[in-house]
Amino acid sequence: MSMEQDHFRAMNTEIDVALMEGRPEDEVQSLHEIRNWFVFVEGRFSRFLPESELSRLNASRGFPVRVSSVMLEVLSHAVEYKRLTKGIYEPCILRALEYAGYDRSFETIENYGGFGLPQSAMLEAPSYRSLERSWTTYPIFNLARLSRGTSLDLGGLVKGWSVDRIVSWLMVGGIEAGQVNAGGDLKVWGWGQNDRPAWEVDIPAPWTSRGQKKPDILATAQLKQGAAATSGTTKRRWKTPSGVMHHLIDPRTGFPADSDVMQCTVLGASVADAEIVAKTICILGSKEGEAWAKEAFPGYDALLVTADKSVRFVHGKGSNVCWKEAR
């Protein structure tokens, strides 16, 4: 079986691709198109690029702005996820992230020794009331308008959505099997059939250090077709005079979430769904988060790691994911 692979960096994360069972020339062309897609998405949705479409929308000061069809599509998903999570998924948290010190790319923060401090001394502390601001879209005119004072961060949703989108395109294009992994948000298809084994997804422990050559593995999931996403509070962390901060903002407080969940990995049909479910569980905590997930996304599996380093499996209704716990 031939396999074409690629590795590159985009959207501030590492992206790995493996394609099988198409014609070799088609696979190579597809690898180029995948790179182009992620570069395109970054140019549209990065809050760190001043010329991006999202930055332009965030700077609109309450006035309508002409936006692309993909921006309208993502904003539509954001509305639905906000509804499904009862407001725990809240894209209007950019000012809260900036106040916590995440006003530059995480790469830049790491280059400064992991010390995050807002570059603007004019930033005000976030409040729940400020996070309730939202947006309106006018699809027939390709317009969007943020309420005055609203700034969006669509990063996690966009990463999952972009993987879902490119995999759909690859499948329609005749690539029979493959995997696309954007920083741990991944989708696989076409495995477990035609003599192809299921794709194995290792779940690393949240306490694995960056310099550690071989990460501690909590469990391995065997996927024939589906998606996985991981969220947590231990990777994107930085130091401030007020203490250690992380990037998962609880919209109920406007500050980094303080729950018993260190990390959550979710498996299901959609990467975007899995990303939102994992993040919501991390914010809500193990008890409330598990109860919510079973109601809102009953077919999705989850692996939770709590602050006392205990590991809990949540099996989705009708799930066919095979888990192998590390020994």
UniProtKB/TrEMBL annotation:
Cited Gene3D superfamilies: ApbE-like domains
Top-level taxon of the source organism: Bacteria
Names of the cofactor(s): Mg(2+); Mn(2+)
Cofactor note: Magnesium. Can also use manganese.
Substrates-to-products reaction catalysed: L-threonyl-[protein] + FAD = FMN-L-threonyl-[protein] + AMP + H(+)
EC number: 2.7.1.180
Coiled-coil region: none
Protein name: FAD:protein FMN transferase
UniProt cross-references to PANTHER family, sorted A to Z: FAD:PROTEIN FMN TRANSFERASE, THIAMINE BIOSYNTHESIS LIPOPROTEIN APBE
Organism: Cohnella endophytica
One Pfam family, short name: ApbE
Enzyme class: transferase
Keyword annotations from UniProtKB, A to Z: FAD, Flavoprotein, Magnesium, Metal-binding, Transferase
GO MF assignments: metal ion binding; transferase activity
Ligand binding (Mg(2+)): G156
Membership in a protein family: Belongs to the ApbE family.
InterPro entries assigned to the protein according to its UniProt record, in alphabetical order: ApbE, ApbE-like_sf
